[in-house]
Structure of (wild Malaysian banana) hypothetical protein:
Amino acid sequence: MAMSCSNRNKKENIVQGIIEEDKLVTFNMPYYAPSMEEVKAVIHWEDLFDLEQAQIFETNWDPFDDSDDDSAAFDSIASGKNVAGYVRAAFQPLIEEHFGDAILDELFSIYTANVSRHLRQQKSKHYLFVISLKKKEEKKEEADGNAAAAAW
């Protein structure tokens, strides 16, 4: 959801002359948000760990906004800066590699304003998965086979 604010304003960035249209067309930002069921299925399929516990927590986009008001951010400008800061920390290397570093400050300034505008109207949430895993012990026959192979 945090990236959707940047996706909505691609044309705005082209119009402002920040990003060249041909570079934008060839840019791919991989993003996939699995469900908890998908995460559990991969853990089960890999068969390397036992799933001890799995929980989902709903949290504000801005981790520093702990207000109870779910209608809008208390301080949308500060929250916009916080959200843009962690998005920049995560995606700057990818953006910089494709577009160069000259656009970063202006691009994220626009992104900050867009997020602030969004949070003024609606407080957005995202979900955190917390998973506790325990490494499975080697099966007896695998351990015996590995020991025999090592002795050879």
